[in-house]
# Entry
Amino acid sequence: MGITRVGRAWVYDFADGSKEMRDLLGGKGANVAEMTRILGADRVPAGFTITTEACVAYIEGGQSVPEGMDDEVDAALARLEAATGKTLGDPDDPLLVSVRSGARESMPGMLDTVLNLGLNDDSVDGLAERTGNERFAWDSYRRFVQMFGNVVRNIAGERFEQRIQVAKERHGATLDTDLDIAALTELTADFRDIFETETGEEFPQEPRDQLEQAIRAVFDSWSGDRAIAYRRINRIPDDWGTAVNVQQMVFGNKGATSGSGVAFSRDEVDGSPEPSGDFLVNAQGEDVVSGVRNTQDIADLRDVMPDAHATLMEILRTLEAHYKDMQDTEFTIEEGRLYMLQTRNAKRPAQAAVRFACDVVDEGLLTKAEAIATIDCEKLDALLHPTFDPTVDYAVLAKGVAASPGAAKGEIVFSAAEAVAAAAGGRDVILVRPFTEAEDVAGFYAARGILTAEGGKASHAALVARGMGRPAVTGASALDIDLDKHELRVGETLLREGDRISIEGTTGQVTIDDVPLVEPEMTAYFQRVLAWCDELRTLGIRANADTPEDARKARAFGAGGIGLCRTEHMFMAADRQPKMREMILADTTADRVAALAELLPLQQQDFEQLLEAMDGLPVTIRLLDPPLHEFLPPDEDDPRAHALREVNPMLGTRGCRLAILHPEIYEMQVRAIMRAQCAVTERLGHPPRLEVMVPLIDYERELEIIEELIFRVAREEGVAREHYLVGTMIELPRACFLADTIATHADFFSFGTNDLTQTALGFSRDDIEGRIMAPYIESKIFDRSPFETIDAPGVGQLVRMGAWLGRKAKLELKLGICGEHGGDPDSIDFFHNSGLDYVSCSPFRVPVARVAAAQAAIRRGDDGGW
Amino acid sequence: MGITRVGRAWVYDFADGSKEMRDLLGGKGANVAEMTRILGADRVPAGFTITTEACVAYIEGGQSVPEGMDDEVDAALARLEAATGKTLGDPDDPLLVSVRSGARESMPGMLDTVLNLGLNDDSVDGLAERTGNERFAWDSYRRFVQMFGNVVRNIAGERFEQRIQVAKERHGATLDTDLDIAALTELTADFRDIFETETGEEFPQEPRDQLEQAIRAVFDSWSGDRAIAYRRINRIPDDWGTAVNVQQMVFGNKGATSGSGVAFSRDEVDGSPEPSGDFLVNAQGEDVVSGVRNTQDIADLRDVMPDAHATLMEILRTLEAHYKDMQDTEFTIEEGRLYMLQTRNAKRPAQAAVRFACDVVDEGLLTKAEAIATIDCEKLDALLHPTFDPTVDYAVLAKGVAASPGAAKGEIVFSAAEAVAAAAGGRDVILVRPFTEAEDVAGFYAARGILTAEGGKASHAALVARGMGRPAVTGASALDIDLDKHELRVGETLLREGDRISIEGTTGQVTIDDVPLVEPEMTAYFQRVLAWCDELRTLGIRANADTPEDARKARAFGAGGIGLCRTEHMFMAADRQPKMREMILADTTADRVAALAELLPLQQQDFEQLLEAMDGLPVTIRLLDPPLHEFLPPDEDDPRAHALREVNPMLGTRGCRLAILHPEIYEMQVRAIMRAQCAVTERLGHPPRLEVMVPLIDYERELEIIEELIFRVAREEGVAREHYLVGTMIELPRACFLADTIATHADFFSFGTNDLTQTALGFSRDDIEGRIMAPYIESKIFDRSPFETIDAPGVGQLVRMGAWLGRKAKLELKLGICGEHGGDPDSIDFFHNSGLDYVSCSPFRVPVARVAAAQAAIRRGDDGGW
# Structure
């Protein structure tokens, strides 16, 4: 039965593949084929790959091998036998093969490798005779039975390891290699007994049967729990499937002139140019990886086997130049001859990635663009925040969402007020809350880090923490927080206020161990890379910054301006809240105007500092956005406060709607802005680059009314029209449809993709993220939160429609986005390809965004855009 | 100074206008011109119109007459003088004119009329001599001074009326007409004194000065408070402006062969074919309208002035045939000769409108389409609900929003529970609440009507009441409700539970008077009109109905099916709430499944009744939509209930999201539906036309998952795929963009424009309507609530995009809308032109929608669509 193949073959010889065929052959199969092509067939053991499509067909057919596959495997096997001059199961000179899984992306958690397949009670003798090495033959057979039983038939590894211990004791051996032929023969028999006991079947003697079982096991491992869990976490689609690679064995365990190892083309930790790696003499690859024996540094290979070393070094350079990236390889030396078994682009930490990029440009190996393309920009965050010292062990108390990168340590506090008080007393604190709200923001500033029991990557805590660059772990659901008792339980552990805790926001870990922190530095390598990115990118990068301190940080990180200053954060400060309350609860417009008059000089002062800090760069100041009730304490019981509360505050009386209802609020803000503009112009001798932004526009007329207010107040304060811009947030679906009319009143648009995502999808971030994300990813409705990476087919098209209509009406309209997506590399790529002028993100994401924007430009040059 | 005219003239002679020039000449000017054209210049007194554009230019120029206008007025005046052979201000034979305002739409609240302009101390003698009627001349002058002072110079009317009373007493007169020449001369002098005292100016003697003042007064009245208020209420744009009509006077007050009157071409109350109206002998038009004197029925004119009567009757028929609509005219008879001063389409109540439509078709005067086009379908609601007896006076206690049409009387109750108890005891009650929530719905069923102190036309109370056809008045802010004390204050009036109250949901009035109600009837005329509409329309009309009772009502009103059955309303019933609570608060899926199993037979029973009631017509059943916490009492304090509460429930865990999280809920509902389908198929002998609808789809994959569930359960219950449809609500902006992918899993789309409006505009109906609508209309951001009439450029375009993409992917896709807009005539027109197949509205709106759909089809035939 099974699925019938359409067109493409189920099986490809290595000689027929290439690295471009990764989707079909898997990463491993494609790379082995590529190596065969560039290094020559005598440097890579021959073999073939059963395609990922065969795996998908097998699963869709209900664990049934697709029609024609068996025949193709037979034919490929025949070709392999012809090429090697050996036959699978030949009792005199058997062909032995390895069987390895290999998906598009490397996937730990799947079936890995079966070596020495083809051995049985007959061919083990032939192998012994042919190689003149009986011990080697029996050691190979013993290993095969063990791996086959463990990997293909799921027999627990310790069942075999116990026997090895027993054998060693019985034969007085300390190392595996001390076991003699008799011991190995005995052990092989024992292993076959284990196999029979556990599976109820005899150990298969027919090599073709062995192969078939191994192939099915690889296919089945794609649907295993561990593999599924891994795919969920790493967002790998279920329908990719895995390929199966069948390759002639070469033997690193043939004595002192043989060995196996792994080698990186450069140092994989710091990126320095010397290749790094480990090897073992007289061993198969599994021994190197398993850590059972102590490996030697690859540099030592020069002394042990100088020819093989020289060849390996040459090959590493060749592969790096060919792949245009640092390589991570596996090799085997069989009786002095080097064979390459695998190569792939090396995963590496950020410091190695930037060092590599610099060096390869200096070496003339890659262009700047090629070098930048090798960097995984998601990892760069680590260069900008302290981290747990990676060399130190610690016990994880709880694990949550990696909500805001960086590590922090401090005493536990359970309220923003305590955080503020403790910080004023010079203590380092971690603010621990079930979840956070607007009134906790002062506590964010005061705390070293934030830890919550609820909420995901787009929760209030996560958003605010990322915006401020505070490390945060959210949704650590194991935390049982009792705010009344001021204590916190995790299982048996009880923690009280003042107890010390450490969080790592890059990994989501929480510990009570005192883990040392490693401080970040903007290395010279990183600075060089960033400078190249600035040359290459066309997308501007601005920062969201609400305070002069944020603004200075943003400049230091290379922001080209402030894309979003949220004036509401200025009202959160302790000295301003009472005045804000008075303003909000004013009975009459006159009372409100009086309260606003007191706030005006404070706002003006903030704006002056901000404009001065960003001298020469544009500063976008957004007028008040949140609903007024957000500025009141939650226990406010004034009936006027009650009247302000809303069923759906996200869709309520906020943004420009406030200004239509109470123009005096925006009037005060605009006056403070314009007075600041005058004062700073006088101090600097030239006007700052001021941009005033109106939030939540739905209707052209709303903006027209507020634009008139801005013009009037600017005139009254003596600021000329050419010394400021007026623009608007585009953050509602209607505004995208009406962008042409709105553009007639705007110098710029800034897409607010947070709110646009909430409205276009009908997803309240506060309510949805904790509940919906996991089941939705599980159900394959989406593969990541639309608040993390922009939903391109929905929200993204709204942005493009808004951009298109806006520029249709006004060709010179400046277009940007501000919001969480502004710091997300995939979203940045989308915005680059949407023709936006800039993105704005939190100061700490600016370097990442600079690299991502450069990569987007490079990619666009490559493939001509979406 | 002033605005310079571009192209068009500021002034047009009546002879040069036509009814097509209404925008420029105003309704009155255009109609007088049209009458001049069709009845001949000798039947309509000559004159000219100053355009609406002149008025707009005058206002924009800061109350400054636009350049060239004065010259054009002089020229038009010269032509008028030439045509009449008289000269304005001629002391021997003066030309007298009337000056009347006239906007595009008739607008009470603006300056109305100044008669006899041109009289002064000299020309009054000339008039007396020419007419040989000194009394008439002085009466005319007296009237002119009075009107000019009152209307042009804003002198309070009672200042003049007092003097008339004094004069009557002094001269022993009982009627105005009893005053002799001496008395009138004296009175005129008194009036001029009043004028001087009030204005500080002499009464203008120069006729050209009189005219200029009158023209300016008309222009200024456009910006008067009353006119502005009227425009707000009636959604008339401020920039239309008003025209000014200057017309030669003819005199109905020249004795027994003269008179004035108003005449309708048919009976304006019941629509019967005999013309109706009133007239007065020896009087000017103002006397007829003012109600000071008792008028005579127009039928009596036949006896008094048979020739004039015959001519009038002929003219009424001519005008009706020409305008293809019932006419409302004003006429004057001067010494036996009939002059027509005004005609316009007659405003008329619904019963007259449908009778007229039937009669004119029978008479061969209009085609069915033309007849239907004469009906104001907004008024038809009155034919479907009881109303306050219009012949009875009553005192209005409070006024609120006309939220759901119809009148109701009953005892006050302050809670849904009391309403249910009282209704069970056979008492009629009005449910009075500050506002209503989901758990009050049982009270809606029990009550005769709903009255709330908060909320607008789209509040919960209004929506639910309209859906059920219960009269409702919402937002009656004068009501001070004390729920604890079970009492209600309006100013000085205190009402307690059990006190009787009456509400009129068509007008928003509340009274404690026992006003008799008039019951509605579906007259034969209305039935005929509806049958024609069904022939003409192409848009299907379905009803939103949740109960078998609603379904039967919907059928009776001519619904072509049920477009929306909200299954959640079935959970509101008292016997189901405890089971629902158990289901919602279940700790485990197994507990939930057990609770659901108890609900299943109850739902099945509901569905059976519904399907049976609608036999032969399609029934769309929507699976559960609201967030679960809506089904819990508000005081529910179970911590699991707390965990369900959301910050923005509108954007939260609801609709199909519930089914992704808890598939067992939809599984139960689908099973109940499919079992009902089987049972009813057996009883009827053929399958009902079942349509299952999934709410709140964002992603194709959501629908795919739920579609699979529906298919599976249907198979399990033995329902064949061809015996039901599966469709989805399209109610989120993202779904409109992705409609092509979603359509691959849907047999039909139903646009949920309520939620689409909330999300596309970012407007929470619950929060926004009360706060935003008034200031937004005031600020000219929109002219009516987007929840009342669809926001065509925003939400409407989303609907069209969804429709287009959906049909692109699946040509045969059925498209409908369900939601408040489905019953709104302007929205129906939009949906018709968007190519939808049907709209679904509350049962009580179905007849209105049938007419509106026919009118949309007719209009589309006329003008080729939008």
Notes: Residues 589-613 of chain B form the longest helix (25 residues). Chain B has 32 helices and 33 strands.
